Amino acid sequence: MNKRVLIIDDEKTICLSLTEGLKDLGYEVDYAYDGTEGLRKVLIFKPHVVFLDMRLRNENGLDILREIKKDDKDIEVIIMTAYGNIKTAVKAIKNGAFDYIKKPFDLEEISIITSKALDNLNMKTKIYLLEKEKEHDSSFMIGKNFTMLEIYKKIDILSQNDGVTVLIRGETGTGKELVAEAIHNKSHRNKAPIVKINCGAIPKELVESELFGYEKSAFTGAASRKKGLFEMADGGTVFLDELGEIPMNMQTKLLRFLEEHKFKRVGGLQDISVDIRIIAATNKNLEKAIKEKKFREDLYYRLNVVPVNLPPLRERGDDILLLGKYFLDEYNKKFNNNIIGFSGDVEKRLRSYRWPGNVRELKNVIERIVILYNVYYIDSSHLPEEIREHDINDNIGNTTLNILQETFDESFCLEDKIQDIERKYISKALKETKGNHSKAAELLGISRFALRRRIEKYSQENGS
Questions:
Q1: Higher-confidence residue: 95 or 369?
Q2: What is the 3-state secondary structure (H, E, C) of the chain?
Q3: Average pLDDT, integer, range 56-78
Q4: Higher-pLDDT residue of 228, 122
Q5: What domains are there in the chain, each with its CATH number?
Q6: Which residue has better confidence, 393 or 214?
Q7: Tens-place pLDDT, residues 202-212
Q8: Which of 129, 245, 305, 451 matches a 20 to 30 Å C-alpha distance to 77?
Q9: What is the tens place of the pLDDT at every residue in 234-260?
Q10: Is the pLDDT of residue 416 over 80?
């Protein structure tokens, strides 16, 4: 569907020249010579973007702006002014205008500002849909990149197969807990609790009693029987975060539970049966831990029935800006601020920065900026030093450097990395060729058959 643009200006030459220019750019365009007619056309034409003159013959552009926003707050209004009055332009932005442009202007300026306004509108629409999802689901995920779309498919499949054990892998801050919540909340177990257990936060000597509970007098201080977390989660889900921290003796008992769905309380003789699903998560290299005899191989294979590998934020492209805008809107509301967005330089820096703390770090950065600064646009001076001063070219199109910087951290798995890279190039080629397999295969330097085989392979892995 073509995007619609309305021009409201009492100068006929402006209306006609803008109309022709915007039509040449592919937009549907209408115009009005006064504010009253403009408001009528807002109702009928339903524009996505309005170019509004600040000074109409007998009307105030700010009054018309308020009426437009009252009718549809999502319409992006761009103020046109021949006077270059910054104070008035700022006032317009406070009243809901997207931006302003000074007369005279050329078509290139109009093209750029219209494109930005529509991008902002698209972003707001995506965020609104995500907010609606959040109302019905306490867990939500944000992201439109190829790898994340595959993960959403896995979440849907796993939520419908609620007896399957899941292993979620990814760096700290990538959203492993959100994935666990999403799987649980979309499953038939969602009326029962999801019990979250940080395995690294429980003292090793207390892990068994925390998970399985204990009988009265099982040890000094056990004055009464206590149910464990597994028992409390009956009918629901247990999320074992930082799985790699579980001591070896508990790994054996966890394996038995996964095979039999039974356990004994500490000091107890009777088997207790529960119906729970186990979702585990780790940022550690479990294959390495197996070789070092720190993790049981049989438990690994029992847990790794359906793995979900979360990409680090630095590999998610435009998702960084989508998440940044989401957090910006969230904290604007929380702290009663009105920051509109990011400068072009900031967008480049956000995309090229490596984000060692992933989504959690991005969220904290945006929160800090909203608290500290009362500005309309975030520029590079508002960024933390480590983001402001990093080399903006470090991560743009430099695959070799990315790989070298990333090698052999705790969650490193060569096979996963190779598959991630292959998926990204396939996705990029298909996007550039608009889904044409023959042209995509030519770009990738492989046969059409080889491309189809890889697409089928990844589709099967995700159950689609």
A1: 369
A2: CCCEEEEECCCHHHHHHHHHHHHHCCCEEEEECCHHHHHHHHHHHCCCEEEEECECCCCEHHHHHHHHHHHCCCCEEEEEECCCCHHHHHHHHHCCCCEEEECCCCHHHHHHHHHHHHHHHHHHHHHHHHHHHHHHCCCCCCCCCHHHHHHHHHHHHHHHCCCCCEEEECCCCCCHHHHHHHHHHHCCCCCCCEEEEECCCCCHHHHHHHHHEECCCCCCCCCCCEECHHHHCCCCEEEEECHHHCCHHHHHHHHHHHHHCEECCECCCCCEECCCEEEEEECCCHHHHHHCCCCCHHHHHHHCCEEEECCCHHHCCCHHHHHHHHHHHHHHHHHCCCCCEECHHHHHHHHHCCCCCHHHHHHHHHHHHHHHCCCCEECHHHCCHHHHCCCCCCCCCCHHHHHHHHCCCCCCCHHHHHHHHHHHHHHHHHHHCCCCHHHHHHHHCCCHHHHHHHHHHHHHHCCC
A3: 86
A4: 228
A5: 4-130 (3.40.50.2300), 146-309 (3.40.50.300), 313-388 (1.10.8.60), 413-461 (1.10.10.60)
A6: 214
A7: 998 899 999 99
A8: 129
A9: 889 999 999 999 999 999 999 999 999
A10: no
Residue-level length of the chain: 464
Among all chains, which residue has been given the structure tokens 């500290």? 372
pLDDT recorded at residue 430? 83
Type of residue found at 330: E
Amino acid identity of residue 403, one-letter, is: I
Can you read off the two tokens belonging to residue 55? 């000074």
Bridge partners of 168? 281, 308
Q: Residue 464 and residue 459: Cα distance in Å, rounded?
A: 5
